């Protein structure tokens, strides 16, 4: 990939997606709670060093051009909202991922962030489809790929890092 993903900033109507950095470690640590991770593969951190390790790994993948890992910021007041990423950029089936802090749920920020990532992917990547795996019971998150024309094309169960079994449905979002 010729684009330096460390420089990519994506702007939506109400949000912007900025590259992940250690500047956000404390906010991520405070907001990435057990409640937020209920339906996710990663578990919530035990301490801030867990977040620092994750940021270190994520920034390395960004540097190598493998992932576009971002922090979601509200345009009008610079409020931290969560994280969104587009992973496995070196494949024909990159994977979308997102989490939004609890106090910002239900306001459409997740849908806007994923739509913004999808638009960037359409302009910059050669892919077959984007994957969006989500637990079957996570109805608010399922509405995100559905709003973008995503269709369920795979289903599977897998354990998450907290030892719970996720009942995943995998949406596929195709190019326009």
Provide an overview of this structure.
The structure is a single chain. With 176 residues, the protein is of the alpha+beta class. 27% of the residues lie in helices and 31% in strands. It contains 4 helices and 8 strands, in the order E-E-H-H-E-E-E-H-E-H-E-E. It has helices at 25-31, 48-63, 109-124, 139-147; strands at residues 10-11, 15-19, 68-74, 80-87, 95-100, 129-135, 151-159, 165-174. It has a 5-stranded antiparallel beta sheet, with helices on both faces. Strands 6-8-7 form a 3-stranded antiparallel beta sheet, covered by helices on one side. Helix 1 packs across helix 2 and helix 3 packs parallel to helix 4 (139-147). The model has no long low-confidence stretch (mean pLDDT 96).
Pick out its properties:
176 residues; five-stranded antiparallel β-sheet; three-stranded antiparallel β-sheet; 4 helices; 27% helix; 31% strand
Q: Would you state the CATH class? A: Alpha Beta
Radius of gyration: 15 Å
Number of helices: 4
Write out the CATH superfamily name: Gcn5-related N-acetyltransferase (GNAT)
- Number of DSSP strands? 8
Largest sheet: 5 strands, antiparallel
Q: If classified by CATH, what would the architecture be?
A: 3-Layer(aba) Sandwich
Say what the CATH topology is.
Aminopeptidase
Q: Major sheet: order of its strands? A: 1-2-3-4-5
State the order of secondary-structure elements, H for helix, E for strand. EEHHEEEHEHEE
Integer average pLDDT: 96
Stretches with pLDDT under 50, minimum 5 residues? none
Q: How many angstroms does the end-to-end distance come to?
A: 22 Å
Quickly give the structural class. alpha+beta
């Amino acid at each position: 990939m010729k684009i330096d993903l460390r420089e990519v900033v994506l702007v939506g109507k109400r949000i912007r997606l900025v590259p992940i950095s250690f500047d956000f470690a404390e906010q991520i640590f405070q907001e990435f709670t057990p409640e937020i991770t209920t339906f996710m593969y990663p578990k919530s951190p035990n301490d801030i060093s867990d977040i620092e390790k994750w940021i270190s790994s994520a920034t390395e993948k960004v540097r190598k051009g493998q992932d576009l890992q971002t922090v979601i910021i509200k345009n009008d007041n610079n409020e931290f909202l969560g994280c969104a990423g587009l992973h496995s950029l070196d494949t024909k089936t990159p994977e979308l991922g997102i989490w939004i802090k609890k106090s910002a749920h239900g306001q459409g920020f997740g849908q806007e962030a994923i739509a913004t990532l999808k638009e960037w992917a359409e302009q910059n990547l050669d892919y077959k489809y984007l994957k969006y795996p989500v637990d079957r019971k996570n109805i608010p998150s399922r509405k995100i790929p559905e709003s973008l024309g995503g269709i369920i094309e795979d289903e599977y169960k897998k354990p998450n890092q907290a030892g719970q079994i996720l009942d995943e449905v995998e949406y596929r979002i195709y190019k326009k």
